[in-house]
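Hi R.,

As promised on Friday, here is the backbone we talked about, encoded as structure tokens. Could you run it through your design pipeline when you get a chance and send me back a sequence?
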């Protein structure tokens, strides 16, 4: 007896000979777990680089941290046992209003210098992409000379420029511009003008790094995207703000992070300018203040630890931003 025919809704549709049937899905093979020696190999290769770093950076950091909880001075250098005092060094420092003034000046100096450095550096990098080859090479050579000159040699030149009797800056302000108040003016005797000179020197020496790293990032922006935005009627500022700037933002975040770290622990520029006749107590920043405590090793270690904590707090924002950019 023949089987009854299937109803129309359950009958298989006719096969089109011109349409290829999809290939059956292949089962995904299970991931083979590597042996422990293969997994350990990359970490073993890092050991030759990590050991010198751990010895060169880890030991001084641990030693500094231990000294900050001890009473350690010149007597301990000659064999007297160090006395454990706990948090006394930290309470003595953080209860001193002068220390908080130094911390506030250091943070303000760091943020102002980092902001100026990033703004001037990005502007010069954009300028290098717009000028001709001769002007670009001239600018690059000048920036390399400013970046490669030793710090002490640069400070000597700037001290002559701001000299009260023979400085070019005072001559330009007094004779050509007619500002008689700057004739014989001492730029390092007042804290405000002292920090102005220090800012000029620090920014002068830091701008080349930002220029070169930003210029290299701008060269990686696709020309097709720039041309398409230009054809759509976007101005130069709109192309930079909405196209180039988002693409180079990770590079700018790294450059800004490095500038914050470098400007917070600036020492040589401030120390040399202080030796030129500036009032030391009114112009101390964190680096020079820690150096002034060099005879009291325990207080210096505590202040250096506080400086490390401040650095980590200031750079935490940039690190979170960089991690967020990588996740997008």
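Update: got your reply. Pasting your designed sequence below so it's all in one thread:
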């Amino acid at each position: 007896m023949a089987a009854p025919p299937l109803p129309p809704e359950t009958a298989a549709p006719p096969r089109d000979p011109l349409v290829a049937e999809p290939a059956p899905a292949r089962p995904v093979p299970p991931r083979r777990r590597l042996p422990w020696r293969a997994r350990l190999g990359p970490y073993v290769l890092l050991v030759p680089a990590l050991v010198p770093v751990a010895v060169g950076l880890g030991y001084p950091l641990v030693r500094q941290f231990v000294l900050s909880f001890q009473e350690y001075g010149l007597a301990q250098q000659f064999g007297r046992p160090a006395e454990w005092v706990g948090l006394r060094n930290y309470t003595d420092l953080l209860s001193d209003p002068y220390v908080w003034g130094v911390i506030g000046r250091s943070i303000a100096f760091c943020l102002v210098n980092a902001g100026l450095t990033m703004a001037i550096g990005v502007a010069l990098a954009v300028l290098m992409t717009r000028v001709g080859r001769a002007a670009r090479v001239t600018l690059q050579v000048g920036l390399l000379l400013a970046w490669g000159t030793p710090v002490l040699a640069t400070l000597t030149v700037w001290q002559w420029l701001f000299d009260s009797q023979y400085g070019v800056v005072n001559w330009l302000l007094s004779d050509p511009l007619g500002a008689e108040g700057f004739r014989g003016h001492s730029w390092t005797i007042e804290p405000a003008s002292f920090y102005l000179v220090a800012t000029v020197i620090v920014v002068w020496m830091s701008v080349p790094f930002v220029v070169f790293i930003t210029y290299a990032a701008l060269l990686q922006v696709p020309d097709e995207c720039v041309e398409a935005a230009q054809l759509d009627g976007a101005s130069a500022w709109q192309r930079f703000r909405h196209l180039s700037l988002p693409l180079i933002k990770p590079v700018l975040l790294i450059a800004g992070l490095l500038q914050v770290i470098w400007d917070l622990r600036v020492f040589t520029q401030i120390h040399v300018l202080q030796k030129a006749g500036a009032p030391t107590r009114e112009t101390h920043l964190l680096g020079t203040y820690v150096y002034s405590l060099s005879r009291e090793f325990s207080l210096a270690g505590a202040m250096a630890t506080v400086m490390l904590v401040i650095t980590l707090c200031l750079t935490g924002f940039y690190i979170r931003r960089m991690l967020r950019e990588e996740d997008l």
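One thing I noticed while checking it: Residues 112-283+308-327 form a domain with the MetI-like fold fold (CATH 1.10.3720.10).

Thanks again,
M.
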